[in-house]
Write a structure and sequence with these properties.
Blueprint: E1 2-8, H1 19-42, H2 53-57, E2 62-67, E3 71-76, H3 105-117, H4 128-136, E4 147-151, E5 159-162, H5 165-174, E6 180-190, E7 197-202, E8 205-211, H6 217-221, E9 227-236, E10 242-251, H7 269-278, H8 298-305
Parallel strand pairs: 8-10
Antiparallel strand pairs: 1-3, 1-4, 2-3, 4-5, 6-7, 6-9, 7-8, 9-10
Helix pairs in contact: 1-3, 1-4, 4-5
């Protein structure tokens, strides 16, 4: 499929592009595409699990032409449907596989920027690391007046970026808690495609999780359909909800562990952004997101399980 990236409004946008700038643009776009693919398949954009060489080939984006009329980069890439063999066993959400075959690396880049710029609370394909990759695209701009647009020759809605748009992306990224250790309690539900991936059903909804090397699948298998208390590293979505958990320890639950069955609530992202724009000085968003009830130190919470 053929895509275009149009750079317009700056003095340098004259039908040519500096080689260093082209290299930076290529690296950034490829990293966004890879992160967007990772979050769909593995739950987080920084998933480092080994993927098939064929799927890695599916991330290939080729520059086929540079045209004038400002500076227009013509890019070509193939649908992922040509590269998905053997991936089905590694996904949390099998429904993703009905979408990916017709999607392309550049299509995921466009979709990711659109989701960040038109953020809605139910966004499911954004995390802190991927938003940082989007934010790094700001380095491509040479002036505040420049506009960079992505299109598929009119077959999908165009996405246009200004340098000022990255302020919102930065606020959105800052609103997401950094990955950190948590304790949750819930019912263990097995995913039929993978022994190392489970879903934890909590009072406030399911949490996708993967077993670390410290947890043997056979040790957790006896708890399928039963309640369990889990210690792990949580990764978050915009809004402060846990989207992905690396399980590091498991405990048979006690009555007091129901304390951990509720995930911390967070202020809505649009409220945070609106409040952030009205503030000056220190960024306080990270100070109010993802806090446990009563804000006990994590070490004290672990002692409650012993």
């Amino acid at each position: 499929m053929v895509y275009e990236i149009r750079l317009a409004g700056a003095q340098q946008d004259d039908g040519s592009i500096d080689l260093h700038r082209l290299a930076l643009l290529a690296q950034t776009v490829t990293e966004i595409a890879r992160g967007a693919l990772n979050i769909r398949i593995g739950g987080i954009s920084t998933d480092r699990s080994k993927k098939s060489d064929k799927l890695q080939q599916g991330l290939s984006i080729k520059l086929s032409n540079v045209k004038s009329g400002s500076t227009v980069l013509v890019l070509e890439c193939e649908p992922f449907g040509n590269y998905l063999a053997g991936v089905q066993g590694n996904v949390f959400r099998p429904e993703v596989l009905s979408e990916l075959p017709v999607q392309t690396p550049m299509g995921l880049v466009i979709e990711t920027f659109r989701e960040a710029l038109n953020f809605k609370e139910e966004a499911s394909y954004l995390d802190k690391a991927l938003l940082k990759k989007l934010k790094s695209f700001e380095k491509i701009f040479t002036s505040a007046d420049e506009k960079i647009s992505f299109s598929n020759q009119g077959s999908i809605p165009e996405v246009s970026l200004l340098k000022a748009d990255f302020q919102k992306i930065q606020f959105l990224e800052e609103s997401i808690p950094n990955p950190h250790e948590v304790i949750i309690n819930g019912v263990i539900d097995e995913l039929k495609f993978s022994k190392s991936r489970v879903t934890i059903i909590t009072q406030e909804g399911p949490v996708n999780a993967v077993l670390s090397e410290e947890v043997v699948p056979e040790n957790i298998a006896k708890f399928w359909g039963k309640s369990l208390t889990i210690v792990g590293t949580a990764h978050y979505q915009p809004g402060g909800k846990i989207s992905f958990l690396f399980i590091e320890k498991i405990f048979e639950p006690r009555e007091a562990d129901l304390y951990f069955s509720k995930r911390p609530a967070a202020e809505a992202i649009d409220q945070q952004i609106q409040r952030k724009f009205s503030q000056k000085g220190k960024n306080q968003l990270a100070d109010v997101i993802g806090k446990w009830p009563d804000d006990e130190p994590f070490e004290d919470l672990l002692k409650m399980l012993d």
